[in-house]
Request: fold
Amino acid sequence: MEEDDNVPLDPQPVVEWLDDDEIAQLDLQTISNSLQFNRVSSQDIIYQKKQKCKMVGRYVMGDKLGEGSYGKVKEVLDSESLTRRAVKILAKRKLRRIPNGEMNVRNEILFLRSLKHKNVVELIDVLYNEEKQKMYLVMEYCVCVLQELLASAPESKLPLFQAHKYFVQLIDGLQYLHGQGVIHSDIKPGNLLLTLDDTLKISDFGVTEKLDPFAPDDTCTKGQGSPAFQPPEIANGHDSFSGFKADIWSTGVTLFNITTGAYPFEGDNIYRLLENIGKGVWSVPEGLDPLLSDLLVNMLRFDSKERYTIQQIRNHTWFMSSPINTGDSVPIPPLQGNALRSSTVLPYLESYHYESRQNNVYFTEHDLNEAEEMARQQETSSSSQNMRISKNNSITNEEAFTTRASSDLNKKRRTKKKFISCISVKKLTHCRQS
Amino acid sequence: MPFFGKSQKSPAELVKALKEALKALETLKAGGDKKAEKAQEDVSKNLVSIKNMLYGTSDSEPQTDIVVSQLAQELYNSNLLLLLIQNLNQIDFEGKKDVALVFNNVLRRQIGTRSPTVEYICTKPEILFTLMAGYEHQEIALNCGTMLRECARYEALAKIMLYSDEFFNFFQYVEVSTFDIASDAFSTFKELLTRHKILCAEFLETNYDKVFTHYQRLLNSENYVTRRQSLKLLGELLLDRHNFTVMTKYISNPDNLKLMMNMLREKSRNIQFEAFHVFKVFVANPNKPKPILEILLRNQDKLVDFLTRFHTERSEDEQFNDEKAYLIKQIKELKPIQTDGTSQSSQQQ
Reply:
């Protein structure tokens, strides 16, 4: 019955079935339109730098300043005091992979909290993110690592007056640390930071040891620092040694390094290196200032009992005299193309607040490729430099290698992440809209 | 135009002129109004010229090394530095500041490893003593303070000051009623006691009794700032490894422990907190002398109770909480050496 009702009301729509031929025809039409490959020149694909403002606690995040085995160091801006800070980001996941990783971090926080000196980096805040399993150590902002400055200097060495300026501050800081019963155990240019007003700050207290306040002397047992800066007593595997004198040795190697661009001990691999240090035979490079040489000889004495104390260093002629200013200091090198190392937080803030007004900077794939190529070239040249350093130097423990490899991987992933691919199309000349 | 005339004066002439003006000022200070004014003006003018020679001005560079060393030599020979400091309160306001600037600049002068002015002052320690006495005169105290702290940077000069009888005047200076002078004096005092670690440790060891009898007065001062600052400095001194011997000596004296235990109960939370950092050393000592142990044992329960409730709002401060927990544990585990020492009478707290 219902069918009857329906029939008159709804005249059956005319269905025109297409036969196969026609379909083929139709397809061909549409396909022929889009089947031709539209060649898009790499210059036409554009990318835009991602500028998303991110906050951790009250800190606005900026770009990366550096990277270590534990994680990244980024620049941040304290949104309350508007001061520039650096934040060390530690991921639990990474820390677990490093021997004593979590212990070392706990150590570092504990020590830094209790230390306050002009030449020791100040820990300002510690934040935890349980969800991400991350820890943020907010510290004083330092513009540069002494190591970077050194790497940018001709022959990787500093003019004597500049080296002297840093060395004096290093001794001041070290004396304070020793006074607090703190043995740094890892003094090296890579752990010395510089601020904008050229103040040196000792940092990285990961392997630091603290003496019991009632311990009668400074006997230590650990010795975890970087191989190239370790004293013979550690290289020879002594069970216990004088902690203060071990720091003096590393400070001596640091002074040697910043004034000559070389290391007193070298070795093709870590075993050779330690073997050479263990023998303790080294020589002052020719042409080095005689007073400085004398200081170095006394700081790098094989027998730790004969090695200078901080007081003796202070009374040494080279320490007391200020070498004549011989022209310009080595300037702080540019970071990622920014000669002034200006705040990397500001662009994020600007784009957050004034996005509409801002002229977006676009990258084309071509630019990107070129930049990548540049970076690759730089990396190879710097890694060859690294190779050179590690040859006569340190780092050669396995974890340093693995972390470096993984950090390389990370780096690649990050560059990909940083750009939003093809968010808009500038002009696709060969592409017809369908 | 007079500017050119002045800058052409040689260092010798300048020093001579300044010395004469000062002499005039010295003799005239009582009566001669007009003449004294003139002399004061002369002093200030010459001081400005000397200052400009050393520092330069907005449109001229500092003089060459030769001129500066001539100037320094003249200053030593004429004994002008001492004269300037002795008559500092006669010099006008700007002039006083210029004296400090000139003094500090000449003091910092270095030739190779030598600091000629430091050597000169070593032969004329009156300069230092006059400066130290400057804290007694309100109008020059702060100027003397800046010069003193500059001197204290040099070990040789710090040593003269520390080992002088005048040093003990600082225990009064840091307590004077004028706040800015007291705190300036305190920072000089602290600089002298902490700057040159080895020197300071030796000084404290050899003069232990004298220094700490005086120090005790600061800790008991009626002035809150003095009490707090001196307690903080005491903590810093004791916890510096350079002062190990002094620390062990200090923490073996039961009177010191009693004082700290009383300070733990002070009204001010800041003082309580500073006292905690000294108190912890007594408890952490692995070789507690008998009298110390006895006091702690007598108050064992009370201390545990007190510390458990002590500054509980500092939950953020991990180190403090760790230390507190450690102290509580230590005190709980205290065992009397002899059985007869277990009387639970609590006389202290």
Q: What stands out?
A: The CA atoms of residues 368 and 374 of chain A lie 10 Å apart.
